Amino acid sequence: MIKVAINGYGTIGKRVADAVAAQKDMKVIGVSKTRPNAEAFIAKQRGYPLYIADISKKAAFEKAGLTVAGSVEDMCKAADVIVDATPGDVGATNKPLYEKLGKKALWQGGEDHEVAGFSFNSSCNFKDAIGRQFVRVVSCNTTGLCRIINEVDKAFGVEHVHAIMVRRGSDPGEIKKGPIDAVVLDPVTVPSHHGPDVQTVLPHISITTMAMIVPTTMMHMHAIRITTKKPVNRENVIELIKNHPRMGLVKKTAGIKSTAELKEFAMDLGRQRADLYENCIFEDSIYAEKNELCFFQAIHQEADVVVENVDAIRAMAGLAKDGAASIKLTNDALHFVPIQNNH
Length: 343
Prior knowledge:
This protein is an alpha/beta fold. Helix content is about 35%, strand content about 25%. The strands form two sheets. An eight-stranded parallel beta sheet has the order 4-3-2-1-5-6-8-7, sandwiched between helices. Strands 9, 10, 11, 12, 13, 14, 15 and 16 form an eight-stranded mixed beta sheet that branches. Helix 1 crosses helix 11 (about 305-315), helix 6 packs parallel to helix 11 (about 305-315) and helix 6 crosses helix 12 (about 325-335).
């Protein structure tokens, strides 16, 4: 059993904790919080030992009825692998602790590539992560881009990718973020950070990305155009999407044409937290002619990296030698079946 500590029990951390707890070869040995809030009570309900960064706040937690198992350092000492799910730029400040303890640790896409020196995607470079001490799981958008670009590259060869990210303004629970009534170029300059981030996983891919944020909390939407080296065939593209364990095809028959309807579908399917771990690629949007491929895909910003974290843990611990095998173990434990098989 891989003993896993979750440093930061928030949007991503709580999802990773539940996904790890569902695995047969892993165990959550603790989660950390900075204050006694609703998520801390969920951790208690789940039976996860609760650790805190500032031990002087122990009394405040216990006054709220939350038992404190110890400090974050205590938790990290007991772990085989630490998942750092603290807010962006905070995780890097934790690295000296992990180094001091000689522990394996993985970070999220909010940190720079340099924090670990290796950026991870289960479908693209699983074998390169085996046995590593430090790994960074790329962001939700980069995860979605890497999955589909890698498959198209293997099938047709990729000459160039041009992708436009229409990003959600905030997560549903982030009440202090916006925008409320604006489309914000984020950034105004081209490329956005997403293209260079894809290249930390797929360095040979030529890619240009643009991004904006809009007043929604549901999901991100990508408009992608890929120039291929070999002529592209629509039916073959649909098949490679169907055959990938983490890509979902939103079929015409579902009548879904928005992120809101996708999230409603996920809720109706009984997905925990209505999470969509897969790329949600709209079948009707797939255009393939000669060496040009275009499509829309929706990415659930809270969820698609969760399964990647689980695979990264398994690779770092050396308990799987093959990406496809780990992906199957992770998906099966979560009873996760891509959406095209549900409509």
